[in-house]
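User: For my dataset I need records formatted as: sequence, then structure tokens, nothing else. Please produce one.
Assistant:
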Amino acid sequence: MRKRFSDFSGGIYTNPRVRITVDDGRSFVRRTPDRYDVIQASLVDTWAATAAGAYTLTENTLYTVDAFNDYLDHLNETGVLSITRWVADGLRLVSLAQAACEARGWSAAERLAIVRHGRVATFLLKRVPFTAAEVSQLQAVATRMGFDILYAPNAAPGPDEDVDGTHTGDYARLIQAPDRRQFYRDYRQDIRPTTDDRPFFFHTTKLERQFSVAFSKTMLFGNGLSALLTLLGISATLVLLFVVGPLVLTDRGTRRPGGWLFWLVYFGALGAGFMLIEVSVLQRFVLLLGHPVYSLTVTLFSLLLGTGLGAAWSRRLDDRTLRRTGLAAVAAVAAMAVLVMFISTPIVVWAIPFARSTRMLIAVALMLPMGVALGVPMPTGLRLLHGAAPQMVPWAWGINGAMSVLGATLAIFIAMNWGFQVTLLAAAFTYLLGTAALSAAAKPS
């Protein structure tokens, strides 16, 4: 941009008034004390992942209600948020603007303008209402450039056309709808506003249609939903066929205390619960650390280091206290999963102005204790199982690994539809189920 494309870009990257920062856009906006006349995001997403339909499964914290609030907070009084996206996925941007404005007591209909050229639309959201002079100027520029105005305050919208399955007239209908929540319910796609808790901007398939969409003709050309549900089904089927099935056939009629089913539930709960927590926590720290790569690295480092320390410490436990310690550790993990729901957001808000190295240390300090608790139940359970039914140890490892795969897939499915807080609740419930199973399996005879 400074050499080969300098003339093409007008030398903007060599302009002394331009300051270049390489960072996650949302994280930068959160940390900066500055206010701007314009905050702009023009088709900032890469389409490299769409060959497998993977965009459906991608979190994006640039397009959430919380992000829009950050942008509005960092605009000057007459500043404008400008976002350019494809017409086909732009209705959700309108719902985001409406939700952000509603929380401030503003009318989104007075502050929004949307202009289209071909398959691309640009959304303009102001902190203050558009004036009649600004709307007239927008219409004049649109006419000169050959653009269509999909919506502007007190302006006639352009023609209602079908663009990649989306009617352009739906933009004005959503903005002017007397009950936008009813509009969401009636619309064929899920265009409800996304949040930092459920940041899947590109996932617009309603829950009741997901199975039919996943296995429709689109799966032949790349459909992330079909990949997710197929993996979920295959994993569940293999667990039933190759773990539960053989045990049912070979161990039928067993009534010994600590029977095989309780042990399977316990070790399966550890595998699934661990992945539910890991996926949720990883997402929580993307905004804090500024990039998914940092979040993945720091989260995995902290949790794996903690689990190693917890497993090493568990070796020191006396056999007589194993059952009690194992139950306490599993219950503690469930409690921590619930605690993360309440403390993660305030901690991110507090810590985000700090340097990245400091934020990494804060993330490690938060995750390490949970990792230690996560590391105790598995080796403790194996010691108890070895004393009660040593022939079940290989099956315990098998069900734990299988349920880890199933849990990772299930975590994404739950988060896409209900959010990461519900995913953490599911993790807490899974560990509580494991607590009950261990209590029954290792019951003193």
